[in-house]
Every structure is written in structure tokens, then in C-alpha cells.
Amino acid sequence: MVRDALFSSAITALLAKGFSTREAVNEAKKYITGAIQHSLELGKGNGPTNHSMIYIEGQEYMRMNYSLYLVADVSRTERHSLEKSVEQAIIGGCTAIQLRDKNISDLEFYNLARKIKEVTDKFKIPLIINDRIDVALAVEAAGVHVGQSDLPAEVVRKIINKDMILGVSVTDINEAIRAQKEGADYLGVGAVFSTTTKLDASNVSKKMLKDIKKSVDIPVVAIGGINIHNLSDLLDTNIDGIAVVSAILGQDNIVQASKQLREVLIVGGIYNEL
Question: Is 99 helix (H, G, I), strand (E, B) or coil?
């Protein structure tokens, strides 16, 4: 049965992420039960109304988990080691990966995206492509993320596959409400702290972050300057996850850095295991 196959696949994915056998079985049961309770038609594609569930490799459903979202910015690490860095981040607890680069050629970015997707597929982790809709479609990524200066969300939604995740960067309530109305599946809100990885990012206050979260019905991911030292300041904002760059890629031990962030998120009730 499809349900049995999905149950086995979920267990395998969790074991690959370091869960014990008992933990993997328990979490896989929660996943299958949740899918049934939400009337998800297992094995048939998630459709445009349930983008928390995504179809990977033509055979498996896995949840889009925003808890610890790594933005794999090529400029923050050596390109030849980016695949390894992403793998280590996933082992440490990252639940989603976004590939971002503004400075390499189309062909270079496409080839890099293919390599990164091999890693994310191995761990059944969704890959989101920043800005480049063509590359996202070409490599069959889980989704695409756009900013306020990119194509409007409603246009992107018409271009991409109906099952793909669409993320939109916002800085205020009006942008958030508009993005949701135009078909966004989640919002990236920031910069919540000063950051050197995106110099054109506007600062978003903690109050605004909370207000944005209250104004929409889709997941909200905080981004911008978040690290192990200031993460605790966001635990009372009711966000669905954090997106980081240097807090993981800029550290000597990527696995440990990811684990430390994961532990803080667990304490704050933000980290979802599956």
C-alpha cells in the first residue's frame, strides 16, 4: 500500500537525520496520522491548497518544515565545499535549504543547483531556489523564493508548477497580506537584526514581526542577522522558523552550529522534528 511505503520512507529519512529507531518510528506515525487527518490523498500530489506537504522524487511526501531554514549563499563559502556544507547543516538539524547567488552565470548556478539538490534529495529535505524561477523549474526544486524587487508573487504563481512552494520576502503588514493574497505559501520577514549578508535588507522591528505573524495565515520565517546569541530574543514572537546564513555557514563546525540553533528552537517550541 502507498501508506506503508510512505511510512517506511519517512522512517528512512528520519534515521538518516540521526534519529534513533524508536524516535523515527514515532515521528513517522505522527506524520502519516496527520496526513490522514488532514485528508491528504497519499500518493497523488499535494495540489495548490496544501503546500505544507511536498512531493519529492516522484514517490514520497515530506512536510515542508520551516523550523531551521538555511540560506546557502554561495558568497559565504567556497563553492567547491558548498555541497558538503549543506550536507553537514542537514545532519545538524536544518529542515529546509534555499540556494542563493546573484553573481555567477546561469550555467554555473544551474549546475550548482543540481549538485545541491542531490544532497537535499538524499536527506528528503526540500530545496528552494532564490529568485531564479527558470533554474527552480529546470532542477525540479521544491519551490522558489522571491523578493519585493523580483516578479510579483501572483505572476510567479502562474509560472511555477502548482505543487511548488512559493516564498516571498516582506518587511511590513501590507506586503505580507498582499503576498498571501497573491499565492505565497510562506513569508520571509526581515532583517530582524543587522546583517552583512544582504546589505539592501530593511530592518524589521520585533513588534512588526509579531504584527505580520498575526496578520496572515501562512508560515512566517524570520531572517536577517540571527545567530546563537540573539535567537532567544525571537522565541516569543510565534514565528514558524528562522532562516540563517552566517550563523551556520560562517562557523568552523557546521554540524555543531546547526545543532546549537536547533536546541534553542526546541526550547522555544519552534522546532518541528518532521
Answer: strand
**For the purposes of burial, counting CB atoms within 10 Å of the CB of 92, is it exposed (0-12), middle (13-18) or buried (19 or more)?**
buried
Please state whether the predicted TM-score (pTM) of the whole model is above 0.85: no
Of 48, 63, 78, the residue at which a domain comes to its end is 63
Phi, psi of 258 (to 5 degrees): -65, -40
**Between the CA atoms of 143, 146, 151 and 155, what dihedral angle is there, to the nearest 10 degrees?**
40
Q: Give me the residue label for grid cell 487527518.
A: 37
Q: What's the number of CA atoms in the CB half-sphere (13 Å) around residue 271? A: 19
Given a cut of 50, whether residue 197 has pLDDT beyond it is yes
The Cα 81–Cα 100 span in angstroms is 15
Residue 274 lies in a domain: no
41 and 125 share one domain: no
Q: What is the pLDDT of residues 67-120, one digit of tens each?
A: 999 999 988 876 558 999 999 999 999 999 999 998 899 999 999 999 999 999
Q: Is residue 122 situated within a structural domain?
A: yes
- 273 domain residue, yes or no: no
The CA–CA distances, whole Å, from 148 to 142, 151, 174 equal: 21, 8, 12
Q: What is the mean pLDDT of the chain?
A: 85
One domain for residues 48 and 74 = no
115 and 217 in a single domain? The answer is yes
- Residue whose grid cell is 539592501: 200
Domain that holds residue 25: 2-63
Distance between first and last Cα of the chain: 22
C-alpha–C-alpha distance, residues 90 and 69, integer Å: 10
